[in-house]
UniProtKB/TrEMBL annotation:
This is Prephenate dehydrogenase. It comes from Streptomyces hebeiensis. PROSITE patterns: ACT (PS51671), PDH_ADH (PS51176). Residues 2-289 form the Prephenate/arogenate dehydrogenase domain. NCBIfam families: PRK06545.2-1, PRK06545.2-3, PRK06545.2-4. The keyword NAD applies. It is an enzyme of class 1 (oxidoreductase). It catalyses: prephenate + NAD(+) = 3-(4-hydroxyphenyl)pyruvate + CO2 + NADH.
C-alpha cells in the first residue's frame, strides 16, 4: 500500500491515518467538516489535498447511517482500488450497498475494536489500535486483493485481524460493546439527581461501571440505531435478570423464612453467573484470566510517584501484571493497586516497605 484516502477525520479515521502516515503511506484526508480535516493534517495524519488519481485504499470512517452513501459516492467516483469502512455495525451497511446495485468485489467491511470516551481528531493517536482486535467481514464477492489490502492496513496499525460474518459481528458487539454502553449510562443516570452526600461516597466500583458513560451521546445514538435489534435482544435478557433480582431482593425483606431463602438463592445465582461470565473474558495476551494478588500502596499526588513504584518493583525483580488507581475523596492521595503473580506479592510488599512505601491490606 502506497496511498490511502481517509474519509472522516474523527477519532478512528485520524488514528488510522496517523498510523499509516507514520509507516510511509501517503494519506489524503477528507471530511464534510474541512476544519477537522485540516486539524488532522496539522497533527501529521496526512494532507487535506485531494489525490490526483485513484489511491490504493479508501478508508471510510463515518457514522454507520452514512457509510453506504459515502461509500457509494467514492466508488462511483473511482476514488480507490479497494474500499473499506470502520463502522461499528456491519450487516446493515453491507445490505444497503448491495441494494444500491454496486459491485462489492472491491469492498470489505471492517471494525477496529478500539476507541475512547473522547472523539474528534484531537483525541486520535497512532497507537490506538495496537494489540486490539480488528474485525474483517469479507463476503464471497470480496476480491482477494482487497482482503489483502485490509490485512495490510491492520498490520500497519499493529492490530490483530479477526474474520467474522457481518451479522455474527453485530450480535457480538451488541453483547460486548453496545449493551455495556447503555447499562453504564443507565447507572450513571441514577447519579444525576442523587444527593451530594451520596455522590461524595463514589469509589472505584462506581467509577469503573460508569467510565464509558462519558461517551458522546450523538455518536452512540447513531451506533445504536444501526444495531437496535441485536442490542434490544441482549437488553431483554438483562431485563429478565433485573426483574428476577428485584423479586429476590424484595423476598429478602419478607417475614417468611422460605421466601427469604428463595431470595438469597436468587441473588446468589445472578452473582454466581456473573462470576462465570467474567471468567471468560480474555486476560493478558489473550490467555485465560489469571488470578493476581493485589499489593495496595498509598501514594501522594506528586509527580514521579508511580514511576518510583514501578522502578522499585523492577529492582525487586517483580513483574507488574496490571495496575489500578483508586483516588481518595477530598485528599491529595490515593491507592495504587499493583497486581502481580501471587507468589511475588510478599516479595513486592516487603521490598516496597523497605523503601518507605505505606502498604495497605
Amino acid at each position: 500500500m502506497r496511498t490511502a484516502l481517509v474519509i472522516g477525520t474523527g477519532l478512528i479515521g485520524t488514528s488510522a491515518a496517523l498510523a499509516l502516515a507514520g509507516r510511509g503511506v501517503t494519506v489524503h484526508l477528507r471530511d464534510h467538516d474541512t476544519t477537522r480535516a485540516r486539524t488532522a493534517a496539522a497533527l501529521g495524519a496526512g494532507t487535506d489535498e485531494a489525490p490526483e488519481g485513484p489511491v490504493d485504499l479508501a478508508l471510510i470512517a463515518v457514522p454507520p447511517t452514512h457509510v453506504a452513501g459515502t461509500l457509494a459516492e467514492a466508488m462511483r467516483a473511482g476514488a480507490a482500488h479497494g474500499y473499506l469502512d470502520v463502522a461499528s455495525v456491519k450487516g446493515g451497511p453491507q445490505r444497503e450497498l448491495a441494494a444500491l446495485g454496486l459491485d462489492l468485489s472491491s469492498y470489505i467491511g471492517t471494525h477496529p475494536m478500539a476507541g475512547k470516551e473522547r472523539s474528534g481528531p484531537l483525541a486520535a493517536t497512532a497507537d490506538l489500535f495496537e494489540g486490539r482486535p480488528w474485525v474483517l467481514t469479507p463476503t464471497s464477492d470480496t476480491d482477494t486483493e482487497v482482503l489483502n489490502l485490509a490485512l495490510e492496513l491492520v498490520a500497519l496499525c499493529r492490530a490483530v485481524p479477526v474474520v467474522m460474518d457481518a451479522d455474527a459481528h453485530d450480535r457480538a458487539v451488541a453483547l460486548v460493546s453496545h449493551t455495556p454502553q447503555l447499562l453504564s449510562s443507565m447507572v450513571a443516570a441514577r447519579l444525576e439527581g442523587a444527593d451530594d452526600t451520596a455522590v461524595r461516597l463514589c469509589g472505584q466500583g462506581i467509577r469503573d461501571v460508569t467510565r464509558i458513560a462519558a461517551s458522546e451521546p450523538a455518536m452512540w445514538v447513531e451506533i445504536l440505531s444501526a444495531n437496535a435489534g441485536p442490542v434490544a435482544d441482549v437488553l431483554a435478557g438483562v431485563a429478565a435478570d433485573l426483574e428476577a433480582t428485584v423479586e429476590s431482593l424484595r423476598a429478602l425483606q419478607s417475614a417468611d423464612e422460605a421466601k427469604r431463602d428463595g431470595g438469597t438463592a436468587g441473588v446468589a445465582d445472578v452473582l454466581r453467573r456473573g462470576n462465570a461470565g467474567r471468567s471468560r473474558i480474555p486476560g493478558k495476551h489473550g490467555a485465560a484470566p489469571a488470578a493476581y494478588e493485589v499489593v495496595a500502596v498509598l501514594v501522594s499526588d506528586q509527580p514521579g510517584e508511580l514511576a518510583r513504584i514501578f522502578a522499585d518493583a523492577g529492582r525487586a525483580g517483580v513483574n507488574v501484571e496490571d495496575v489500578r488507581i483508586e483516588h481518595a475523596t477530598g485528599q491529595q492521595a490515593g491507592l495504587v493497586q499493583v497486581m502481580v503473580d501471587p507468589a511475588a506479592a510478599p516479595v513486592l510488599a516487603a521490598a516496597l516497605r523497605e523503601r518507605g512505601w505505606s502498604i495497605r491490606q
